[in-house]
Design brief:
Elements: H1 15-32, H2 39-46, H3 50-56, H4 68-81, H5 86-102, H6 105-117, H7 119-143, H8 150-174, H9 181-196, E1 215-218, E2 226-229, H10 236-246
Antiparallel strand pairs: 1-2
Length: 247
């Protein structure tokens, strides 16, 4: 007889209990497969009742992903409080999402392994990505309001920021969560800002202003190929010195 039937029908929701149920789902998916794992089995593994499971998750699919509703709320709070230029602000919001993965490195890698092998989980993750894109696009439409190309700029910029975020995240997860991906993320966002918001540098500085520095991208370990993006009116000699300092 399973332990689920011995548990109280009502268990007070807590973040710890949510994490326990999610961990049980990941363990069962990895051990016996996604299709073979039922909600009842997850609840039993977590030591809770079926009703408690559905207090946290709508389905077993939801149990494998981060708490996207909470993260979206955190992103909205960040965007409402920032005074950064529009695209830079959205990059900051995307960084909030990225941190949620970095803060749970092992869990994020485990989720990635599972989602790669289960089409249903891939579809659900795509829906979550679309949610963040809509949040960023809505924010940018407000920031670009009054421009004739406001919608085009907002939708394009939101998609570009999310694509940069997802590229760095995917590379990091494929590497089993090794290394510090935040530097790569900053470089990717600097590249996006250079394309879409060339009038500013990270931190809101004007290009060529005091303390500015070139954005340098290395293409792969062990190669000699370096791409430097510099927006400045300073003398070439000074620019070369700054690049040498970054390298």
């Amino acid at each position: 007889m399973g332990t689920a039937g011995l548990r109280p029908a009502s268990t007070a929701p807590t973040p710890e209990l949510r994490q326990r149920v999610a961990a049980a789902a990941r363990e069962l998916f990895a051990a016996q497969g996604y299709e073979q794992t039922t909600v009842d089995a997850i609840a039993e593994r977590a030591g809770v009742g079926r009703r408690t499971f559905f207090r946290y998750f709508r389905s077993k699919d939801d149990a494998i992903f981060p708490d996207h509703l909470r993260i979206v709320a955190d992103v909205r709070t960040y965007l409402a409080a920032t005074a950064e230029p529009p695209v830079q602000a959205v990059c900051g919001g995307a960084r909030v999402v990225f941190r949620s993965y970095v803060d749970e490195r092992e869990v994020a890698v485990q989720r990635y392994r599972l989602s790669r092998s289960v089409p249903a989980l891939q579809d659900r993750e795509a829906a979550n990505v679309a949610r963040y894109t809509r949040v960023f696009s809505s924010y940018l439409r407000q920031r670009f309001a009054g421009r004739p190309d406001a919608v085009l700029r907002a939708d394009t910029a939101a998609a570009a920021v999310v694509a940069a975020h997802n590229h760095v995240l995917r590379m990091w997860l494929r590497a089993e969560g090794r290394g510090d991906p935040l530097t790569d993320l900053d470089q990717a966002f600097a590249w996006v800002q250079g394309l879409l918001e060339p009038g500013t540098e990270p931190g809101g500085r004007e290009p060529g202003g005091a303390g500015s520095a070139p954005v340098v991208h290395r293409r792969g370990e062990g190669t000699d190929l370096v791409l430097a993006v510099v927006r400045t009116t300073r003398p070439a000699e000074e620019v070369l010195q700054r690049i040498a300092g970054v390298l």
